[in-house]
Write a structure and sequence with these properties.
Structural class: alpha/beta
Largest sheet: 8 strands, mixed
Radius of gyration: 17 Å
Bound molecules: S-adenosylmethionine
Number of strands: 8
Helix content: 25-40%
Distance between the termini: 27 Å
Strand order of the largest sheet: 3-2-1-4-5-7-6-8
Strand content: 15-25%
Number of helices: 7
């Protein structure tokens, strides 16, 4: 089974939850780099088909090699493209955009809305893990009409990462999740309970690490 970092393991678990109970799902990993996430999804039977997209040839080749050498050539595709351009969305797709900056994520989603139309967007799920500009991503999602299904946080090599699962409803959400404590906009400030939960997670993680346990990411 393909090993993942704690951060990518968190992303994978969000994909697994998104897929749960839905028949034949296709996972699209935008910016697949090494292809590990797509590979793990196929290995665990979480997805029937995996599509990797990469803006650069080198990582696209790496993804293709990883999938081919594990015997998944027939149920995978790798596209050299910007975001989701040239990959029309299908019902129940789970689209992962992880490990890249928030502004890039916003551009990719915006282009996907233009290319696929709003009705198609309502039938897919996005799993987003921005490396930075979280606050801008949250604001964009809220203003564009996405709603949060779930969000998880992990602590990996001294950094907190978050992963949001969102769906497009084309309406203003009733609730905005938030983690950035420095926002001047009160809608995006961190609720006190979330800060307390993060602190508890961190302490739990340190204790688990001391006991040499391997699973150390949490939902809040
Ligand atoms: C830091 S890696 C993250 C890889 C993996 N998603 C992860 O979370 O570990 C970011 C990857 O996204 C690719 N990338 C950046 N912008 C992209 C875009 N607009 N469309 C497709 N791939 C992109 C980069 O080439 C790089 O391989």
């Amino acid at each position: 089974m393909q090993n993942l970092t704690v951060r990518l393991e968190m992303v994978f678990e969000q994909v697994r939850s998104a897929v749960s109970g839905t028949g034949d799902v296709r996972v699209i990993d935008v910016g697949s780099d090494h292809g590990y996430l797509a590979l793990r999804c196929l290995e665990e039977g979480v997805a029937k088909k995996a599509v990797c997209t990469e803006i650069h040839e080198g990582p696209a080749k790496r993804s293709q090699e990883a999938l081919d050498s594990a015997g998944y050539s027939d149920c995978s595709e790798v596209h050299v493209t910007d975001g989701l351009i040239g990959v029309p969305l299908q019902d129940n797709d789970v689209i992962v955009i992880a490990g890249m900056g928030g502004l890039n994520i916003i551009d990719i989603i915006g282009q996907a809305i233009k290319d696929n139309g709003t009705e198609a967007m309502k039938k897919v799920t996005f799993v987003l893990q921005p490396q930075k500009s979280n606050e801008i991503v949250r604001k964009y999602l809220a203003e564009t009409g996405f709603v949060y299904v779930d969000e998880t946080v992990c602590y990996d090599r001294d950094i907190f990462y978050n992963c949001m699962r969102v769906v497009y409803k084309q309406e203003m959400p009733h609730f905005l999740s938030a983690i950035n404590p420095h926002s001047s906009d009160p809608r995006f400030q961190v609720p006190h309970e979330v800060v307390m939960k993060l602190a508890e997670c961190l302490i739990d993680d340190m204790e688990r690490e001391e006991q040499n346990q391997s699973v150390w990411w949490h939902e809040y």
